[in-house]
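Hey all, sorry for the wall of text incoming. These are the two entities for the joint prediction.
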Amino acid sequence: MNKKTQEYRGYIDDLTDYPPDDATFARMCVEIAREQNLVPEPPLGTGLSAIEPVAEGAFKLMTIANFPPSEAEAEFLTSGTTMGSRGRRFVQSMGRYRQAALAGFDHFCMYDPVPKRFCSLIPRGEIRPNSSLSWMISFVLDVFGAEDSVVIRDGETLDFINFTAWAARAVRDDAPVFILGTTLDFHTLFAGMKNGVEPLPTGSRAMHTGGAKATGRQVDRNVLRAEFLNKLGILSDDVIEEYGMSELMSQAYDSPRITPGRRRLMAVPWMRTRVLDPMTMTDVAEGQRGQLCHYDLASSDSAVALLTSDIATSVGGGFVDIERTLAGGPRGCSEDAAVRTK
Amino acid sequence: MLRGRGGADEVIDGEVKWPVGLSDSVLCDVMGEIRRAWLDGTVLSNADRAVIEFETGYLGRHLDSAIARAFQPFSPSAVLRMIELGRSRCDRKMAFVLAILAGRIPALAVNVLFSAIAAHTPVLFRAPGGAGSFVKVLVRSVAGLAPELAGAFGVTSVASNTPELDAIVARAPGVLAYGSDAVIARIESIRPNKPTWPGEHRESIVVAFAEHAEVSAGGDWPPSLARAIAWDVAIYNQGGCLSPHVLLVEGPEQRAVELSKAVHDELLVLARRWPVATPSLSSAALQRLFVSEMRSLTARDGGLVLTQRSVSPAVIIQTSPYRPGPGGRVLQVIPFSAQTPLKTIIPTLEGRLQGVAVHGPFSRWRDLVRLNPSYLAPYVCKPGHLQRPPAVWRENGRRLVSEFAALCP
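and here's what came out:
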């Protein structure tokens, strides 16, 4: 590891109040990318465009690590596909992952009034050690959760009885709460609740993650937010969406109280998400759809630039309406004639 | 209903029946008339053309070439041979075939049509979703050019996975079905013990053997070889079962690199003549992801990715096994030795080969197949001829005209 990269890693370890401006960010990113052999000669472009991002699928084909994998403190498994294979993301420092995850969560989710009671529908990292999401939950519960913070799970199923009791205690004590779960978990929770609970205290909020990926179908977010209000009494602006990937150390959030205006997912300050035209690898215009490419300073141990299978719309510096591109289906004479959209 | 951009509405759904008393000479004449009209370019209105360009992704001269390729095999002598093969002892009136098409290759529908005419077989086409306009225009042209065949051909737009389509599938005397393994399995389960001709997933390859003279003389690959390979790749943007996705090059990696660079140059030439229509965002993203994955693999294992800023065309020289590619003129090239089992080089193509283009003696390919019998292909040819099969070629190991002629409900 060269001195410059060491400096940048030190910066990331102290990254709370001083997010880099675009030029500094690009310089740092390119330097890390150069060490990862992701900056070809002659350069492809300037700034972030100089970097050749690593495709998400490469994690299923080979080891992507900028350090000896034998020194990994953790191994996250990436999403499976219809073909069945999962990739591996070796983590050099769980301390750095913890730092990045907590700083992002704090930045987007812990606005006043700060809730102290947490409920997770997602198992902790100690139960699912290969899940980056579960470890993030562990970090959040351990740092931000105070009295009566729980994991509402009975093996593979949700524990409706304990959830209802926990919610009732919060209402009795007028204590705002924070509920964490995947989008699918919340669908299951709402389906099992029938009549809902007493509206949770003011300041209560929820974070859901996974979206269409979790449910396998398009998620109508307006319908989902209406459910949060009807079943739990949580206001729409306090329903936060998180976007994360096992291949990344950092996340993006749609948190209207922090980033008002049109709802969209915004990357944490030490990550940039570009929405690219895959034909030219240039940024699409505002309101246009393209392929997501993340540049994550916290991923200096793996791939600082990640080209994903996600298509989304570029909105106000962030992105919305994510769809996963389908894996290659049959070709030859059994090819489906996909409708062209351009 | 046929609806295109500005095209006239026309009802072409419905029952199909073979007209009585059509002689061989009448069939010869109508097939010749249909072929002539399409090759002359008098069939397509501007509106039809615009819709078909949009659906196929073949623009301008590219569409002209694709259509010409579809009709060229059916020369007068080829038609005579087809008619001979198409003789049947059965009552043809009710022996209709449901042809479930897939993809966007004009040649597929044309081959079914001409085989059916030669075999006196009425066909109800089920157009592929999102690319059905060509077959609708084709059937409409038959009605216009050959009134003798009135009522023999039709198109249904009934949606897939519906009770309505299942009912037609169940009752049709014969079903020709192109689709995935799952689609074909479902169709066969609806009509057990009835004639069903599956057009399952198959792919094609090119194999360049090291011609002794070239190797010993240290000579270059012939320029015509690169042109021929590029033509087979580009004509249908790698759609269809005869489009090659991988080129095997016998000998050291350097020989593969030389040939790959030449093929890439020819693909760039063809990209100017036949510009690649802008694919859907999903397709473009998948192409970009695939090429990016291959960059990572070649960086680790050795090899080279030849591409410009735009992701297509791309030629990837790799030492890793073939992976199902994204199409859109992305070609994988693998140096190989004839002693290496093909299963380790092209594992996903075992039992799935449709066409093999061979540079070098065909006997070399036969020797290779003897060692790798599950890689037998129905169609073997020279490079540049993958997309030029003869009129009565054995697609998936069968001659359609003979299969149709044998259909006796």
